[in-house]
Amino acid sequence: MRPLLLLLFIVLIIAGVLLGPSAFAFYQSQGPLPGGVTLGGLAPQGETLEDVARNMHEALQQPVAVYYDTQRIILRPGDIDFQVDVNAMVAEAVPYGEGIGFWRPFLGNVFDRPVQPVDIPLKVTFNEEKLAAWLHTVAQENDTVARPAYGVALAPGTPFTSTFMFQAGQPGLELEPNLSAQRVLNALSSPTNRQANLVLVEVPPPAPSIEELEKLLVARSDRFPGYVSLFIRQVGSGEEAAIDPDIAFSGMSTLKIPIMMDLYRRVLDEPPDIETTKLLTSTFALSSNFAANLMLRQIGGGDVGDEWQGAARLTEILQGLGLRNTFMVSPYDTDRPPRAYSTPANSDKTWDTRPDGNMQTTAKDIGLVLEWIVQCSQGGGTLLAAFPGQLTPDECQQMLEIIALNHNNILLETGVPGGTRYAHKHGFVSDAHGDVGVFWGPAGPYIVSLFIYKPGWMEWDVSSSIMADVSKAAWDYFTLVANGGQPPEVETPLPDASSPISATEPLTPGTP
Fold it and tell me: Which of 171, 326, 387, 409 fits a 20 to 30 Å CA distance from 343?
């Protein structure tokens, strides 16, 4: 037994000789807190416990730099009552250095058995309401509102056809408060990395508003030396851009559209025969008033003179559909003096376009008729509901194809790209021009109905200019809608309208 004790004694002496200097050096190197113990992830700094607490407190009370994108904002811990209880953390760390715990790091090094470090978590308090209020103020001062697409402001006299008429919408930027709050607290809790990048969320631009189209068109109409009456609507949408759409105008050739509609409804139970097809073709391809009168005669009963009854029946049906501002009291090219026919539109003396007393309409009324025909061709809408069994989608599709025969490269036609599908009917007298059309754009079919009046005489270049500009603006707007608020990468060129007058229908003043 004694030899064993002796051997153990000798081993201890040797160990003391070998490890004594290292143990003494370890002892001398230890600070006020045991090795391997960190406070909030950081090694304690200071020669006394008071030094450790004071140094940590000072480090964590420095301001932090908070970034909203590139905007630098200073936050002081006191602004949100941010405090770290360093005394409690130090007190929690002290027991790890008592007794054998003091030598744990040394022994772990001797036996090559690393000691698991001990980290005393931060003991943080702050005012949540003040932090939320601070972030709210930052958001109010720096958030940007998403901006929808908007119309291009052109210099006076610049044609709309020279550029795409809308600028892309701009996304907004909003602060995300919950994740941002955590980043701010992380910065406040770090003695070394005292900056935080707030979490920002990009807000996509809202859908383009048809009000932007209307603003553009109001600005354009203000340059016109007379009255402008306009109605634009995406078929079936209910949203519209309008400028005084209920002004009374001469019906002119635009009333040939409802004449054809009533002919199909009242007379044609089968596809039109050769003679009726000739009438329809002449009425729209050549804008023949004589052919239109023969269609009115069929509506009226079919005998000579029944065209007057046809005009009365047409008026009755249109009034029944709610188009109170549209009527015909006589066929085209009659010599009889007009009979007084009062409507809400012609009773309003705010505007005086000297409308024909025999036939009148408004931009909105005739625009609605064309919209109803388009909806009918799609299997729905007012006409099928009002006249069950009297009209079919196929018949309405035939009507659109007949209206589309009016291709003269004039007025509204010139505002859309070549190859666009459209169907329109124009009309004119000496001091007023009108055009109503449906255009199949990237977002679907839409209606443009534009009537203009200039006292005395309507020059063709003045009329052509505003018609093209309005049509181009509408096309650009609905292209924007189809592209989710973004302009096209490459704009489609417009057709050449250098020779706008067709040989099939010379635009002789006074021809309706």
Answer: 387
Residue type at 84 in one-letter notation? V
CATH, domain range 210-482: 3.40.710.10
Q: 460-482 and 210-221 are packed helices; what angle lies between their axes, rounded to 10 degrees?
A: 170
Neighbouring C-alpha atoms within 13 Å toward the C-beta of 346:
20
Classify the C-alpha dihedral 307-309-311-313 as positive or negative.
Answer: negative
Burial-class residue 255 by CB neighbours within 10 Å (0-12, 13-18, 19+).
Answer: buried
* Neighbouring C-beta atoms of residue 427, cutoff 10 Å: 25
d(CA 176, CA 198): 8
Confidence of residue 275 (pLDDT cuts 50, 70, 90): very high
End-to-end CA distance of the chain: 135
**pLDDT for 187-235, tens place per residue?**
998 888 899 999 999 999 888 899 999 999 999 999 999 999 999 999 9
The 3-class SS string of 369-394 reads: HHHHHHHHHCCCCHHHHHCCCCCCHH
| Distance from C-alpha of 364 to C-alpha of 450, rounded to nearest angstrom | 9
Phi/psi region, residue 169 (left: phi>0; alpha: psi -120 to 50; beta: rest), is: beta
Distance CA(380)–CA(376), nearest Å, equals 5
Give every CB contact of residue 129 below 8 A, 6+ residues apart in sequence: none
- Whole-angstrom CA distances from 107 to 17, 86, 100 are 16, 29, 10
Report the pLDDT value the prediction gives residue 504, as an integer from 0 to 100: 33
For residues 118 and 107, give the distance between their C-alpha atoms in angstroms, rounded to a whole number: 16
C-alpha R_g of the chain: 42
- The closest of 467, 438, 458, 512 to 287, measured between CA atoms, is 512
pTM above 0.70, yes or no: yes
278: left (phi over 0), alpha (psi -120 to 50) or beta: alpha
**Across the beta sheet with 71-75, what order do the strands follow?**
71-75, 64-68, 195-197
Alpha helices in 321-416 (DSSP H): 344-347, 363-377, 382-386, 393-403
Name the strand (E) or helix (H) holding 508.
Answer: none
CATH 3.40.710.10 in the chain, residue ranges:
210-482
Map 472-506 to HEC letters.
Answer: HHHHHHHHHHHCCCCCCCCCCCCCCCCCCCCCCCC
Kindly tell me if the per-residue pLDDT of 501 is higher than 90.
no
H or E element that contains 49: helix 49-60
Q: Determine whether 23 is exposed, middle or buried from the number of CB atoms within 10 Å of its CB (0-12, 13-18, 19+).
A: middle
Which region, left, alpha or beta, applies to residue 483 given φ > 0 means left and ψ of -120 to 50 means alpha?
A: alpha
Q: Is the Cβ–Cβ distance between 231 and 249 less than 8 Å? A: no
Tokens found for residue 243: 């400028």
Say which residue, 57 or 466, is predicted with more confidence.
466
